[in-house]
């Protein structure tokens, strides 16, 4: 009721239909559009504009397959005003952090999308653009910090590390993981590559596992490579294992280290572009696997593998881990009555 579009203003909603996907769009009562608004859904998605929302500033949102956008009354004005006030951009970061901690992921998602919109549409010399870029960088760090905290709190894992490149796992195992005299570490690597490429002379993301084994940090027979379901078997070869096989092998064994490369979910080099649903399902599978092996899991390492993963998927994967761990908290609370 009372959807008002002012003169000379456009409200554009585009939906790319793929594989028969269905999207849901809900616009509440007394919504007013005073500036251009563009919402682009790539595949399945959900857009909810609550009652009383006023679009008084031009915004554009792009939703990847499976993403949802909820716009509440006054939120765009509140965020924009904070960005335009000197030294108040930090308040936006604080809001984002609070939304993530309280598991209000829809509100956190809207803040990220607003930053993307301002960065895309504002001139790069404007204060709004500069503040949005700063906030976008900060909330990426907040997301990772919260992910580390969630892994420690929900799964009870003491050693957690996130690096940009996968050779960081070598230094993590060598320098940070606590090991007792005589114990044998088990290493599970979720990766689109086995990271044992003999062509590299120096340590890097393509051969770090070879260094871990050659330096006797992990025994050859204790290295378990889990390749993604979407990977062509000709690339994985006979040494790759499934999640189920690894869980069966390591039942009752420990301590276990888990290293997860984000190209397990998304790969720009091997041309795999996952949907949001696929990312969440694979993350849920890994979280369930780690939970099965607890308390024998000594540590978890993650790497974003910039340059090998579709860049927009990095944050989606991190968000999927937080969502999965939050669901586990809810399930535990429900089970305990």
Order of helices and strands: EEEEEEEEEHHHHEHEHEHHEHEH
**Helix content, binned percent:** 40-55%
Q: Averaged pLDDT, please?
A: 89
Oligomer: single chain
Total of helices: 10
C-alpha-based Rg, rounded? 22 Å
Detail the poorly predicted runs.
none
Q: What is the global morphology?
A: elongated
How many strand segments? 14
What is the distance, rounded to the nearest whole angstrom, between the alpha carbons of the first and last residues?
A: 42 Å
Q: Supply the helix-strand structural class.
A: alpha/beta
| Widest β-sheet, arrangement of strands | 10-14-13-11-12
Strand fraction band?
A: 15-25%
Q: How are the elements arranged and paired?
A:
Elements (H helix, E strand, L loop, with lengths): L3 E2 L5 E6 L7 E4 L4 E2 L3 E6 L3 E4 L4 E2 L3 E5 L4 E4 L3 H10 L4 H13 L3 H17 L5 H29 L3 E5 L4 H9 L9 E5 L17 H7 L8 E4 L6 H4 L6 H7 L6 E6 L14 H18 L3 E7 L7 H25 L2
Parallel strand pairs: 1-4, 2-5, 3-6, 4-7, 5-8, 6-9, 10-14, 11-12, 11-13, 13-14
Description of the molecule:
It is built from ten helices and 14 strands. It has helices at residues 75-84, 89-101, 105-121, 127-155, 168-176, 208-214, 233-236, 243-249, 276-293, 311-335, and strands spanning 4-5, 11-16, 24-27, 32-33, 37-42, 46-49, 54-55, 59-63, 68-71, 159-163, 186-190, 223-226, 256-261, 297-303. It is of the alpha/beta class and 337 residues long. Helix 2 (89-101) runs parallel beside helix 4 (127-155), helix 3 (105-121) packs antiparallel against helix 4 and helix 4 crosses helix 10 (311-335).
